[in-house]
């Protein structure tokens, strides 16, 4: 998606350790018009597939997933929580993921009542690097006995291999911008 790539070039900041900051429009301050365009792009890619729910992970995936849901007949958006709280009751699916940006493990939890066996789920998230967060969501989907019909990613760090691994396993991964390389010294970002 050319507009997303241009926003990354103009407003993204490359930090040491393969960190790409896009907080001006994606994961701190949200450009809802851009999110809507992203949802339209995913709707075009996944056209013809029955989607019952969109699944994401808190926090940055929620806004993107909600905007995308408008393009999928306003299907419900379910988000995995990263911490247990008193608001979570009843049976739950849980797993743990390793966050690349936070550099630590998180539990991820979804109430069983929101994912029903046989449902067709589209996973949406803001970033895909090595795929650890997605693996956690896929684990929850497997336990819930739902079918993952696709994975929509805003920005994929192609050089970290997570997306390539998932595609090799047969998942339909649609990343709107795939970063091939980035240099923290020059700030250069190259797209696939």
TrEMBL record:
Positions annotated to bind xanthine: 20, 27, 157
Gene Ontology molecular-function annotations: xanthine phosphoribosyltransferase activity
Domain Phosphoribosyltransferase residue range list: 47-158
UniProt GO cellular component terms: cytoplasm
Main location: cytoplasm
Keywords, alphabetical: Cytoplasm, Glycosyltransferase, Purine salvage, Transferase
InterPro entries registered for this protein in UniProt: PRTase-like, PRTase_dom, Pur/Pyrimidine_PRTase, Xanthine_PRibTrfase
GO biological process: purine ribonucleoside salvage; xanthine metabolic process; XMP salvage
Pathway(s) this gene product operates in, as recorded in its UniProt entry: Purine metabolism; XMP biosynthesis via salvage pathway; XMP from xanthine: step 1/1
Gene3D superfamilies the UniProt entry points to: 3.40.50.2020
Sites where the protein binds 5-phospho-alpha-D-ribose 1-diphosphate: 129-133
Function: Converts the preformed base xanthine, a product of nucleic acid breakdown, to xanthosine 5'-monophosphate (XMP), so it can be reused for RNA or DNA synthesis.
Quaternary structure annotation from Swiss-Prot or TrEMBL: Homodimer.
Family: Belongs to the purine/pyrimidine phosphoribosyltransferase family. Xpt subfamily.
NCBIfam families: PRK09219.1 (NF006671), XPRTase (TIGR01744)
Official protein name in the record: Xanthine phosphoribosyltransferase
Lineage: Bacteria, Bacillati, Actinomycetota, Actinomycetes, Bifidobacteriales
């Amino acid at each position: 998606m050319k507009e997303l790539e241009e926003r990354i070039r103009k407003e993204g900041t490359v930090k040491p350790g393969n960190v790409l900051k896009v907080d001006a429009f994606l994961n701190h301050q949200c450009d809802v018009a851009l999110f809507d365009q992203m949802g339209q792009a995913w709707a075009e890619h996944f056209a013809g597939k029955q989607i019952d729910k969109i699944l994401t992970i808190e926090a940055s995936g929620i806004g993107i997933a909600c905007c995308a849901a408008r393009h999928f007949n306003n299907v419900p958006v379910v988000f995995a929580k990263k911490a247990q709280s008193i608001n979570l009751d009843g049976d739950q699916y849980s797993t743990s993921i390793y966050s690349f940006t936070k550099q630590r493990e998180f539990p991820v939890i979804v109430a069983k009542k929101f994912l029903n066996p046989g449902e067709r789920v589209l996973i949406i998230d803001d970033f895909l690097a090595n795929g650890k967060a997605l693996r956690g969501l896929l684990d929850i989907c497997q336990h819930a006995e739902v079918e993952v019909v696709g994975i929509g990613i805003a920005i994929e760090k192609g050089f970290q291999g997570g997306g390539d691994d998932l595609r090799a396993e047969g998942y339909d991964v649609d990343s709107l911008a795939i970063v091939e390389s980035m240099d923290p010294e020059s700030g250069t970002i190259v797209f696939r």
